[in-house]
Amino acid sequence: MNSDFTLSDRISAFVQLGIRLSNISEDEKISLFQQAENQNPWFTHRSLEHALEGIRVLLDAQSLEKWLAPYALSEPINPKQVGLMLSGNIPAVGFHDILSVVIAGHSACIKLSSQDAALLLWLIQELKRIEPRFSDRIQIEEMLKNKQAYIATGSDNSARYFNYYFGKYPHLIRSNRTSVAILQGNESTADLQALGTDIFDYFGLGCRNVSKVFVKNQGQLTDLLDALESFSWVANHHKYFNNYEYNKSIYLVNCTTHLDNGFLLLRESSDLVSPIGVLFYEVYADQQELKTKLKELDAKIQCVVGNQAVDLPGIIPFGQTQCPQPWDYADGVDTLQFLSDLGQ
User: Fold this and answer.
1) Which domains does the chain have, with CATH numbers?
2) Contact at 8 Å (CB) between 322 and 302?
C-alpha cells in the first residue's frame, strides 16, 4: 500500500464524492436509476434519490470530521484485506462499510449483492476517478477467500452461514434487525405523518424501517391510519400492493382481526418484524412495562422512534430513521473501532 496516502487524503476524496453527488446531472441520474431499478424493481427513482441524498449528507466534511474525532486513527501498522459481504435490501446499503474500511486504512474486498450492484459500482467508480489511489484499495470480488477479516450482513440464516465460514477470523456479522415506534397518545398529526416516512421509505425493507408500533390504547390506531393517508402512493408499486393484497386475503380467510386503510394493514402481534404491507402493533400498560419489553428485544431492534416525552435513551425523532449519521452504526456495533483495532 502507498504509505503517502494519508487519512486526510482519504477524507478529502470522500468529501469530493459528496460534492459530486450534489452536482450529478439529471440525465446521468435517470440513466443510473434505470440501471438500478432494472436490477431490483423495489429500487424506484424515489428510493434511489433518497439513498443518494443520504450518502451526500453522510459525506459532509463536518460530519466526517465529527465522526472521526474520537478515534486515535493513524495509518494502520498492519493494513488488512477486509472482505465485505453486502446485503441488497435497500439502495447502497453497504456504502457505510466501504467508507469505514478504507477510511481506516484497510483494503475493501467487496462481494456485491446482485440486487444492489449498479449504484454501488457507480459510487466506487466515481471515488476511484476522484482519487486513483483507491484503485488498489477497493476491489470487487466474486469469492471472498483468504481475507484477513470480514464484515458480513444478511438474514438470520445467512448469519449462521457467515459465522461458520468466517468465525475463525476477526469479524463483524450482522443479522436481521428492525425498528419500532412508541406512541403515547400526545403525538401531533405532524408527528404521525413523519412516522409515515419511517414506515414507508424503501417500502419498509430496511432495518431502520418501523415495522411495529407500541400504543397505549387501540384508539390511537385510527388517528395513525388517518395521518398516513398521504402515503397512499405505495399502492402504486405493484410488488408492494401484491404483498398488501396477499396479506389481506390471509387475514380475511383466517378471520384475523385487523385494520385496513387500502394500502396498509394494522394487526396486533407480539412479533417484531411485520410482512410488507403490514404494520404490527402492541398495547402497553405503562412506561416500566414498555422498558422491560424493549430491553428483552434489544438484540433485534435497530431504532426506537418517538417524541421527546419518551423516557428512553437513544430515542430517534419521528421521521429520522432513514437519515443516519456516520456514527450511527448498524447493530450498534462500532465498526470503525473494530477496524482501528484490526490494524494494530
Assistant:
1) 7-176+327-342 (3.40.605.10), 178-305 (3.40.309.10)
2) no
Cβ atoms of 92 and 120 closer than 8 Å: yes
Q: Is 139 left (phi over 0), alpha (psi -120 to 50) or beta?
A: beta
Residues 282, 211 contacting (CB under 8 angstroms): no
Distance, in Å, from the CA atom of 15 to the CA atom of 132, rounded to the nearest integer, reads 15
pLDDT, tens only, 303-342: 999 997 777 888 999 999 999 999 999 888 999 999 998 8
Asked if pLDDT for residue 196 goes beyond 90, the answer is: yes
DSSP letter for each residue of 102-159: HHTT-EEEEE--TTS-HHHHHHHHHHHHH-GGGGGTEEE-S---S-SEEEEE--HHHH
Q: H or E element: which one contains 179?
A: strand 178-182
- 20-25 contact pairs (CB < 8 A, 24+): 20/126, 20/130, 21/52, 21/53, 21/55, 21/56, 21/59, 22/56, 24/52
Q: How far apart are CA 196 and CA 305, in angstroms?
A: 11
Pairing relation of β-strands 259-260 and 265-268? antiparallel
Q: What does DSSP say about strands 138-140 and 107-111: parallel, antiparallel, or unpaired?
A: parallel
The end-to-end CA distance of the chain, in Å, is 16
Helix, coil or strand: residue 256: coil
Rounded CA gap, 20 and 317, in Å?
Answer: 29
